[in-house]
Amino acid sequence: MKCLKIIWLVLVLLLLQLPASSAERLVVGSKPFTENRLLAELFAALIEARTPLKVERQFNLGATGICFEALRKGAIDLYPEYTGTALGAILHEPLTLAPEVAFARVSTLFASRYDLRWLPPLGFNNTYALVMRSAQAKALGITSISDLLGHSALRLGFTHEFMARDDGWPGLKRAYGLTQSNVINLEHGIAYTALVNGQIDVMEAYSTDGKLRRYPLKLLRDDRGFFPPYQAAAVVRGQTLRKHPELEALLGELSGKLDDATMQDLNYQVEEAGQTLEQVASAFLARHGLARANAPAAAVTEGLAEFFWSQRQQLGLRIREHLWLSGMAVGLACLIGMPLGLLITRSTLTARYVLAGAGLLQTLPSLALLALLVPFLGTGFVPALLVLSLYALLPVLRNTYTGLCEVPAELKDVGTGLGLTPFQRLIRIELPLASRVILAGVRTATVITIGTATLAAFIGAGGLGDPIITGLTLKNLNWIMLGVLPSAALALLADALLALLERWLSRKRV
Question: What share of the chain is helix, strand, coil (3-state, %, to 5)?
């Protein structure tokens, strides 16, 4: 019992210590698409160049709800948002077509309800638009959204967020009376590929998407004026501005410097021309005299090996983040699962309910659980650690319980006959005999955790999921492989090392 108390004390102190390391940083967040990440990089680079503040980037945080909750709870200090999105998806207010009215409305309500400040608009309106392949639109005589009414067989592909928002497909369908039923959910970058390859016929796009310059696509006119204005601006915590009032004037220098054509060109440089966020943001700030250019020129890389070498520093960082998060999650699962597995061996009924509860946790979608924890724990390492630990718990708990229960009763009786106390019998007989089964559970938990940890990038925990999200956004296989291959290699390596440990313990026991 004393040993268990010590374990719990160490666990509590560890969890209390984790957030402290980043408490004093200014954290810039973003949603997981190119333009939002690029705007966030502009904010971060400008702050770094013109202030002594240390900036932490938490990009690819997920959809609007996750970013907003992270900002409201203080997990991030600012992120780029759009007026139409704020009205419809966050405030659930009636949509308005007057840009000035929309901005004034979101500014007032965000300040009064959440103590969040909207800085002046950046200058462009990234509205939603429906797009088709130009050749197909011309053949069918479709130039506007109303023209879709006579073509109910068309295949539509929209993002999950667009499918759920009032200013997305549900509202658009009602406003135009559209009858298409063949509608699927697709990630935004993948939807472009599906559209160009003829797998879908219509998708939603952002009017400043860089990909619109690359592909022969037709933007359908919003002839009923359904979509509201989507002026982009930085949204900052009021507490952050009170602590660092210079940020308001500094970020305000970006206001009016990004029109629709400029934003589309910047997106194109990232999505199609192979430039990095840092390079595009640095060049833009230097061109407007806001900061000196400090990002190196893009290296020309063609093969996967060359790309891996060019990204070796980021790869090393992501591997360290992934190993730290996965290792801590498995360690936490062991700290909880092994003592709990020992305790439930005393009652079959208790064991049945505890194992059923741990099994139930495995059925919860991991990404949904991560999103649910954001309002309570914010973003970053801590919620990711908790979720991964819960998923790693079942194999550790079950194998600890099973291994201890399978120790022959006669061997336990021998220990008792030799005068061993229950604790001595556990240490000298039961645990050594159960060690191989327990370690098999740890192996399973480790492989599961290393694979699942890639999802932690959606809430800003970093790791090898970050390049995967970047690759999906940019439709770049090299970036995807930069996350997939090391993650798979780490899982195989960890399993092989634990297999060696398992065989060593087996020989030692014999």
Answer: 65, 10, 25
Q: Which of 229, 228, 226, 230 is nearest to 146 (CA)?
A: 226
CA distance linking residue 390 with residue 332, whole number of Å: 9
Quote the CATH superfamily of domain 312-509.
MetI-like (1.10.3720.10)
**Helix, strand or coil for residue 83?**
helix
Q: How far is CA 25 from CA 18, 77, 281, 309, 360, in A?
A: 14, 9, 21, 30, 37
Side by side, the strands of the sheet bearing 55-58 are 55-58, 26-29, 78-82, 232-237, 116-118
Q: Which amino acid is residue 373, in one-letter code?
A: L
Q: What residues does CATH 3.40.190.10 cover in the chain?
A: 25-125+230-298
Whether pTM > 0.70 for this model: the answer is yes
Show pLDDT as tens, one digit a residue, over the chain (510 residues): 433 444 445 445 445 444 444 446 899 999 988 999 999 999 999 999 999 999 999 998 878 888 999 999 898 999 999 999 999 889 988 887 789 999 999 999 999 999 999 999 999 999 999 999 999 999 999 999 999 998 999 999 999 889 988 889 999 999 999 999 999 999 888 899 899 999 999 999 989 998 898 899 999 999 999 999 999 999 999 999 999 999 999 999 999 999 999 999 999 999 888 888 999 999 999 999 998 877 555 554 567 888 888 888 889 999 999 999 999 999 999 999 999 999 999 898 999 999 999 999 888 888 788 878 877 887 888 899 999 999 999 999 999 999 999 888 888 777 777 878 888 888 888 888 888 899 999 999 999 999 999 999 888 888 999 899 888 877 788 889 999 999 999 999 999 999 888 788 767 654
The interaxial angle of helices 277-287 and 34-50, nearest 10 deg, is 60
d(CA 351, CA 344): 5
Task: Answer for the pair 440, 397: CB distance below 8 angstroms, yes or no.
Answer: no
CATH 3.40.190.120 domain residues, the chain: 128-220
Cα 404 from Cα 399, distance rounded (Å): 8
Tell me which CATH code domain 128-220 carries: 3.40.190.120
Could you give the dihedral angle defined by the CA atoms of residues 296, 301, 306 and 309, in that order, rounded to the nearest 10 degrees? 20
Strand partners, 224: none
Amino acid code (one letter) for 225? G
* Residue 434 token pair: 């159960």
**Given this structure, which CATH class describes domain 25-125+230-298?**
alpha beta
Longest Cα–Cα distance of the chain, Å, equals: 91
Provide CATH 1.10.3720.10 ranges for the chain: 312-509
